Amino acid sequence: MSRRCQLTGREPGFGRRVSHSHRRSPRRFDANVQDRRYWLPSENRHVRLRLSAKAIKLVDRIGVDAAVARIRARGEKV
């Protein structure tokens, strides 16, 4: 399962872990992605979305119908 937000497209970043002796090894910065279930009144059903914490706040601001419309405009299935 990918750690990718359906609304904002936020995905993992990559970098290096640096130890005290300054040896470097690869690491991954995962996005704070959570599964959320929203009621979609226009379709009279629930939808399950994988959203980052920032996208959850965005859905609260613009509404679930507008958020689902943005996801579908990018070609993703909801």
What tags apply to this protein structure?
single chain; about 80 residues; alpha+beta; 2 helices; Large ribosomal subunit protein bL28; Ribosomal_bL28/bL31-like_sf; Ribosomal_bL28_sf; Ribosomal_bL28_bact-type; ribonucleoprotein
User: What is the helical fraction, as a range of percent?
Assistant: 25-40%
Average pLDDT, all residues:
95
Rg result: 16 Å
Instruction: Report the span from N to C terminus.
Output: 16 Å
Order of helices and strands: EEEEHH
Largest sheet: 2 strands, antiparallel
* Morphology: elongated
Separate helix tally: 2
Give the secondary structure arrangement, pairings included.
Layout: E1 13-18, E2 24-29, E3 33-40, E4 45-52, H1 53-62, H2 64-73
Antiparallel strand pairs: 1-2, 3-4
Helix pairs in contact: 1-2
